Input
Amino acid sequence: MRSKLIGITGGIASGKSTFSELIQQEGYTVIHSDQIGHEVLDYPEIKNKLISVFGKVIIKDHHIDRNVLRKIIFNDETKRNLLNSIVHPEILKVMDEMVDHSSIEYLFFEIPLLFESGMKDCFDMIVLIHVNHNIQIDRLINRNSFDMDEAEKIIRSQMPDELKIPLADLTVDNSYSESVLQNNCWNLIKYLPRITYKHITRFSEINGRDEKI
Output
C-alpha cells in the first residue's frame, strides 16, 4: 500500500518552509520539490540540454548557475516555458519514484506552486500556509532585500490566496507567532490518522500542462 501523500504549499514568504521544518522535527519525511529541482539541473542530460538552449554562460564551476538562469528567464516567458519543458518532466519523474519506493505511512511534499502546477489531484490532503499581505511584503523586503515594487511584482505573479483557499483541505494562517504555527503543526499531526486515500493522479501524468513547480 502506498504512502498517504500530503502536499504543503503557500505563496512566497508565507512560512511553508518553516511549517515543513516543524513537521520534520516531529519525525516525518518532507520532500522539497525545490531541492529536487536543484539536483535535476546537474543531471548530465539535463545540463547538456540547458547549455544548448541558454549557452555556457549558465555554467559556473561545472554546475548550472541558478542565479544566472533565473535572471535569463525572469522577464522572458518564452525562455521560462522552455526551461520548464526541459526540467519539470524529470522533477515529476523523480517525485513519482519517491512515492513508488516509499514504505512509510505518511509522505509530505513541500511544493511552492502546487496549484499553479496542476497538482491539485496528486495528493490525499493539501495544506495551504497563507499569511497577511502586509506581513508577506515585510518578510520579502527584510529577508530578500527586495524593494516594495519587486515584492509586489513577485506576489502578483503567483496565484492569490483567495483562489487557493477553496482548493486546500486545510488552511493555516501564519500571520501570528511561531508558537501558533507549532500548534497548527501538532493539530495536523493529530489529524493524520483520519486522512483517507484518494484516487490520485501520478505526478508525471500532469506533464504537458503549464507547470510551474
